[in-house]
Specification:
With 354 residues, the protein is α+β, with helices and mostly antiparallel strands. It is built from ten helices and twelve strands.
């Protein structure tokens, strides 16, 4: 049978289904026709979800005329941007056990796009098999565009923050280049770069939080944190997600501990110097508490400094003030040990941006 004849017969069959549907479901169709929500009905008996009814709201949303819609395949009608996986996902929306209320990017007649969530429900005939599918469209375009705009602003803010930190370093270098205390500038530079590293990590998660392990790895990498058995670091702990404030504070503490280890502790000599960083989350009300232990070994004998420098004040005072935590520093023959006990506020999981 020639293709044009076959297509004509299929079109005639689809139009017959439309007429039977309108007669049998008159009141229901009238109600759907007058609602402001875009709606269609598709034939559940034949293949490809052929459209047998479309209300005016759906036509306004998609830009089609009614005779361009009826009898057409839903995929072929508004699927310009769909790849194979998206078409499969749309088919799944018609299968109750596979889920519903799924979101898609659709194309209008003029090829412009809109975002919509789709809800599909079966319409049963005489309480038996589904005869039609009722499909409603919730236009989420403005919501998605707003999220995209917020993501753009967040990216721009993160970019400008990084540029500001680079500018601060440049100003410090120009200001201190004539000074004799080069070590002071190196310490300052290290702290700003540590802050930048945590900012970069939080930017990747859209500032919803960061894993403690990721924070530790970012900070300790410049101090020689490679993978493998020869590493001077070992990191062990639970899966803990920190709020941005907690991640920034702990990141700075880890930097100061590592810097002190390079200058005076386990990382100041070649050989057997090692650092074990361990953490455990402890259930508590209304939130968890975190126990962190920094243990150095294999380094030179250490003793408490006669003067409390900025790093020590940051470690011992910063957590207490910023995060309501407690810090205990121990200097023993086996090596420096720092224990941190602090609450862990629940990190907010922001919705993913499109």
């Amino acid at each position: 049978m020639p293709n044009n004849v076959k297509e004509a017969l299929q079109q005639m069959a689809a139009e017959a289904v439309i007429r039977r549907f309108q007669v049998a479901e008159g009141p229901f169709v009238a109600a759907a026709a007058n609602t402001r929500m875009p709606m269609i009905f598709t034939d559940a008996v034949g293949p490809n979800h052929r459209i047998i009814f479309a209300n005016d709201s759906f036509l306004q949303l998609t830009g089609y005329e009614r005779d361009e819609v009826l009898g057409k395949n839903l995929n072929s009608l508004i699927g310009y941007n769909f790849d194979l996986s998206e078409r499969t996902k749309l088919d799944e929306a018609f299968t109750p056990e596979l889920g519903n209320d799924l979101s898609f990017v659709f194309s209008r007649k003029d090829r412009s796009t809109f975002y919509a969530s789709v809800f599909v429900a079966a319409v049963y005939e005489h309480g038996e098999a589904a005869a039609q599918h009722f499909v409603s469209f919730h236009n989420t375009t403005s919501h998605v565009r707003e999220k995209q705009h917020l993501q753009h602003l967040l990216n721009e803010l993160d970019h400008r923050t990084q540029n500001t930190l680079v500018t601060v370093l440049a100003i410090a270098a120009q200001t201190l280049r004539r000074e004799t205390d080069v070590k002071a500038y190196q310490n300052f530079e290290g702290r700003v770069l540590a802050l930048s590293r945590v900012h970069t990590l939080l930017g990747r998660t859209k500032w919803s939080g960061a894993r403690l392990r990721d924070v530790a790895e970012q900070i300790l990498q410049p101090f020689g944190l490679p993978d493998g058995p020869e590493s001077k670091f070992s990191l062990t702990g639970d899966e803990v997600t920190l709020t941005p404030k907690t991640a920034l504070s702990l990141g700075m503490v880890f930097h100061e501990l590592a810097a002190n280890a390079v200058n005076y502790g386990a990382l100041s000599v070649t050989g057997e110097g090692r650092i074990a960083l361990e953490w455990t989350s402890i259930p508590d009300q209304p939130s968890k508490r975190l126990h962190v232990v920094w243990q150095e070994s294999g380094g030179p004998l250490v003793a408490p400094a006669g003067r409390r420098g900025f790093g020590t004040r940051l470690i011992e005072g910063g957590l207490a003030q910023e995060l309501n935590g407690e810090v205990h520093h121990t200097f023993s023959a086996s090596g420096v040990r720092c224990e941190i006990n602090m609450p862990v506020p629940v990190a907010v999981k922001w919705p993913e941006f499109e």
